[in-house]
Structure formats: C-alpha cells, structure tokens
Amino acid sequence: MKKLCLLGLFVSLASHSVLADNLPAPMENKDAFISNLMKQMTLEEKIGQLRLISIGPEMPREMIRKEIAAGNIGGTFNSITRDENRPMQDAAMRSRLKIPMFFAYDVIHGHRTIFPIPLALASSWDMDAIYHSGRIAAKEAAADSIDITFAPMVDISRDPRWGRTSEGFGEDTYLVSRIAGVMVKAFQGTGANAADSIMASVKHFALYGAVEGGRDYNTVDMSPLKMHQDYLPPYRAAIDAGAGGVMVALNSINGVPATANTWLMNDLLRKEWGFKGLAVSDHGAIFELIKHGVAKDGREAAKLAIKAGIDMSMNDSLYGKELPGLLKAGEIEQSDIDNAVREVLAAKYDMGLFKDPYLRIGKAEDDPADVYADSRMHRADARDVARRSLVLLENRNQTLPLKKTAKIALVGPLAKAPIDMMGSWAAAGRPALSVTLFDGMTRALGGESKLIYARGANITGDKKVLDYLNFLNFDAPEVVDDPRPAQVLIDEAVKAAKSADVVVAAVGESRGMSHESSSRTELNIPASQRELIKALKATGKPLVLVLMNGRPLSLLEEKQQADAILETWFSGTEGGNAIADVLFGDYNPSGKLPITFPRSVGQIPTYYNHLSIGRPFTPGKPGNYTSQYFDDTTGPLYPFGYGLSYTEFSLSDMALSSTTLNKTGKLDASVTLENTGKRDGETVVQLYIQDVTGSIIRPVKELKNFRKVMLKAGEKKVIHFTITEDDLKFFNAQLKYAAEPGKFNVQIGLDSQDVKQQSFELL
Ligand code: NOJ
C-alpha cells in the first residue's frame, strides 16, 4: 500500500514534470520503473493493459471511462480530438495506479491535411518530400492528442488486384525499404517521446501484400528465400529506423496465421531482428484464429496469440475474457502476460506518457476552437508534395501543358470529387476542405469562364458495384450517382468537348475501389467511363486523361485514345491545385512509377525484378517455347520507374571506374545526365544491378540506388553512384546474406527498361 502511494505521488509529480532530486529514480531508468510498476499491478490490471479498444460513435463514453478508471483498458483508437481524449486520460488518472492511456489512429498519409496516398508518395521518389509529409502528419496528429499511428504500411504489393496496393509504396523492396525508414523517422521526429511526434507501428507484419490472387485477407504461401529477399526487408528497415510498434497481419503465412505465428513473432522479429517494441494485433485478428481454423474457440485463440507474442489485442474481447482462466489452468504462464504488459508499458514510457500523460492532450484552455481551422492545415506543403507525386504517362504532340488561353472542357465523374481526392485511409481529412480538380483548374484560370464542365459519366454503371462502394461509408454516400441515363451524360460531355479546344477527362476509380477489402478482378477503368472516353475521342479534340486511382490500371485502349495521360493517384487535400499546376505547366512533372502497369490483368504478376528463367522471351525474336502469353504483346504497358517530363533528358553511356571490385573496395558508376529540352525539370536517375551467375537464381535486375536530379534547360551533370559489396549481397539457399564473386551487370536509366549497361567482376 505504501509502495502504491509512492507511485501515485511519483506519477502525479512527474506528470507536472517536477522531479525532485531525492526521489528514487525509476522514471529515469525505464526498466526499473516498469518493473517497479508491474510489481504493484494485479492480474486484472495487467490484462487491462493488453486491451486496445476502438472508439466508435456507437460507443457509450461513460462506460468506456468507467472501464478505464477500473484499469481495464490500455489504449484506444479512433478518437481524435483533445477534448474527446482528455476525459479518458482523466479516467486513467483516477485509476488505482494512474497508468496513462495512449490514443492511436490510422494516420497513414496525413492527419487533417491529407497528403497523396502512399503509392503516390512513392511515385515522387523524393525522400525529402515524403519525410516532410510524414512529419506534418505527425505534428497535426500529435496536436490532436494522438500518441501512436498504425503506419507506415510497407507491404510489398506485386498484385494490383489487391485494393490495399494504394496504401503501400509499391512493388520494389529497395524503394519501399528506403521509404519505410523515412516514414518512421518522420513520424517519430526527435523521438517518440516528443510532444510533436507520434510513435510509428509498422504494418502489416508480415507479407500481407502477397495474399493469393490479390484477394484481401487471403492466405500467403511463400518460400523462405522470397520472404527474406523481397518481402521482409521493408519491415526490417522500419524497425531498424526505430519503429516503436508493429501491427501484425491478418493473413496466414505458410499455413500459420501471423497472429498465432511464433516463428514470425518470436524467432524472427524479436530474436533475430532484436525488436523490443509493441506488437499489436489487427482488428479482431485474435478472434479470427477460430475462422482460420487453428483455434477451436476463443480460449484457444487467446492462448495462441499471447504465446506467439501478440502484446495488445485490437478491439479486444478475448484477452480480457480468456487470459485469467488460461493462467489459472496453467495453460499459459505468468511470464506470457508479463512480457506483453512490459511491452505496453515500455511503449507508453517511450511515448513520454509516464512523464506527462497529457503531453499531447495539453490543457483544455489551449484546445483549438475549430479543429479544422485553416491555420491548423498545411495546404502549401500538401500542394507541393502532391505535385511531386504526379506521373506523366503520355504526352503526344505536347498536348500538355495546356494554355491558359484555351477553351477547356472538363468532364468526368472525378472532376468534382472531394472525397475521392483524399483517397482511402484519409484519417481526419474532411472532404469539404479538399480542392477538387474543378476547383484547382478554376483557380488557375482565374474564374470559370474558360472551363466548360460536364459530368459525362458515373463512376460505375453497375448497381452492385455502386452499392458495394456506398456500403463502405457510414456518414454519407461515398459515390455520388447522377440518376440521368448514361447516354444523356455522354451527350452533354460531347457537346462540351465540341465547343472546346481541348478536353480534360478526370476518370478512374472512386477511392473505395482501392481500399481495404476492395480487391478487383479487372483493372480497367469502369465501363461507364470507358464509353465516355470513346465518345470524347470521336470528337477529334485533343484529349487529356487525368487518372485518379489507387492501383495500376490496364490502360491499353486509353493509351491509344488519349493524347496525354497524367497519373494523379489520389492526391490529397490540395490535389486539385497540384494537378492544375501540372496541367498548366506551372510545375514540370517528375514522378516515376513505383509499380509496373500491366497491359491486362491476365499478365499479373508483372513486377520488373523477376527471377531469371531458362527460356526468356526475347523482344524482337518472338518464337515458340519461350516464356510469354501468345495472345498479347509481352512486357508491361508502363514499366517500373517510368514517367515523362515536359522537358527531355538524355543519358550518356556509363563509365565504370574499374571492371573489378574487391570485397572491401568501391566502384564508381557514372553517367552524364543532360536536360536537352527547353524547360527546367527534375528526373530520377536509377541504378540497377544484376548478379549474372549465382549459387541460386537471381533477379534479372534490382534497384540499388537512385537520385532525383533537377537540371536547368540545357544543363548537364555527371551523376555518380558508389557500388560496394553490400549492394551485391543476397540471401542464399542457406538464408545467409552474402555476396558471391562473379560477373555483375550495372544498369543506369531513367526507368527500369531503358538503360545503359556495363559489367564488372566481384573478386
Ligand atoms: C484494419 C486494418 O487492416 C489496419 O490496417 C488498421 O490499422 C486497423 N483496421 C485499425 O483501423
């Protein structure tokens, strides 16, 4: 009892940051502090810490606060303002041991200011811009009392049928790993304990992007080699960058759900990688162990999860209900619970919450009068990052940039689509604050007079699809449907097109089409919109497609029909302004694809860094008995790393400083990049390496470095890359990470296919 009072006193002193010198120093010594605290906790209080509860509109707040005050909840998610979270923290401060709560949220690509979706951020290949977007997201979220985010999502996605492709950074292990580290550093800033930082919990551990057939929540079956070589490095990069948390994936891996997977969670994550942070289950995942068919009931599910090292149970019912009985029956050990509790408390410690439970909640008198006040938004930053993420796929006859003096027909269901502009997982973003393409173009033109708008088509003409998409949003219809017959909409758009000099069609997916659980069997633009494009093409007017979508689309027909195609993904709060900047040439596009665009869904997978095969298809020499689909052209529609500019760039041949490399040496690979066009512009110079002969089959090439370079019109610059043995290492058949002597091809290009090549030998 005495101890307890001391701790109470300590927390209350500490919470006011008045640390007296003569107090024992548990707060300074994390392990001692936590051990001391744990000694005072009852079993119920310990289990309470393992419960992460979702706060929904339907949730009785009074009841939640009661539970918190009783020590039965460790953290909540989905409550996102200081005045919502303060009473919950007050309740925690009324609990016996005053253990602070943490407040979590899915801050994925922005908090109130929404930045481009992650796939778009990756398209910028601009690590500074990506960092900046994450830092602002963290600051905004922290200012709204959020302590921890369920991000970054670094699942490698090589199957664009998977709706969550939008949420990740693409298909490439190296690029995604780089971004993983950048995002963790951005969220956590100077440390997860800083008032303007939030803790990162990398997800979805592991391999979620490889669900069979691209169908969400499906199984994953993968060789250990492929896991280590291609899919696991991004999670590792996030952890090496200091991510305080990990969210465990919903899928199974080689027959064992991640949530019950002791190899994944204990052997790999904690023992091999040395992860010391918090492991959180995904929503309801422990219960789903029953549906996976590895637990016969809730009791067994809870046992499997706690044994596997799942510290916190998201949306918990089972930990709270089953752990006491399991312990009593000797089916789990006290140490299973204690280990998990220790991680939760350690995470709270690392978030700075023991020192000050109100670190991010602040004082009531400082609460913003309007959480959406313009002064709290970061519009200029969002616009800048969004411009950097746009990818110019086609630009015949210099259709773009548009002249501001031209008469422009703006058509398409996504021209005035504020919800879609934000993309999925738009955190606390508010549609009313997002700038649509119509708004952005109108502003750029200084008024509506030169813009002729017609909707032209609905997102989909398929009632079943529409119902599905609208089922996803609880507040308002997600997809607005114009009830007029399709032909009437098209006729109106054609009329607008005929009276204009150029047509801009905003087409693609609604945001819900690229979301959790939104897997697709086709990658086409929906038929209703394809009909519109066809009709617009028939007018003979120059046609610019502004694509909005969260995954690669198959654009075979559109590539022929359109004069220019700008891939804008879902570009966030300032999307409309950013797109207008590019359309009118106020910004020269520089984005590059972080994922391959297939010609058709039947070609999947189309990732560029596939393994070498015995009978490769040779372009220009088609023939029987080579690896191809005989009914279509082989190769992607747009390769990984591809993207145009309004200027032209050329690359000289590559110079290699030597044709041999010692194990401890360095090699310099250089090219001269020249801006041969008439505008200043940026491009991404990409370095690929192929290990020609290895003890196991190696990929045809792998991205190993890149540099985003700005050149004035006519300017030249020599771009150097250093290659060391580290760049040549891979996991061999024994899963040993090492380089093997022999021949390597080095390629430098402005995309993954059009490259300059040289070779060297590793001695
Ligand atoms: C389920 C999703 O899979 C996960 O990514 C997300 O963080 C949680 N729900 C919480 O919203």
Automatic annotation (TrEMBL):
Compartments, record wording: Periplasm
Residue ranges of domain Fibronectin type III-like in the record: 683-752
Molecular function (Gene Ontology), one example: beta-glucosidase activity
InterPro entries noted in UniProt: Cellulose_Degrad_GH3 (IPR051915), Fn3-like (IPR026891), GH (IPR017853), Glyco_hydro_3_C (IPR002772), Glyco_hydro_3_C_sf (IPR036881), Glyco_hydro_3_N (IPR001764), Glyco_hydro_3_N_sf (IPR036962), Ig-like_fold (IPR013783)
Pfam family, one: Glyco_hydro_3
Alphabetic keyword roster: Glycosidase, Hydrolase, Periplasm, Signal
GO annotations of cellular component type: periplasmic space
Record's keyword annotation contains Signal: yes
Catalytic reactions on record: Hydrolysis of terminal, non-reducing beta-D-glucosyl residues with release of beta-D-glucose
Family: Belongs to the glycosyl hydrolase 3 family.
NCBIfam families for the chain: PRK15098.1 (NF011678)
Stated name of the protein: Periplasmic beta-glucosidase
Gene for this chain: bglX
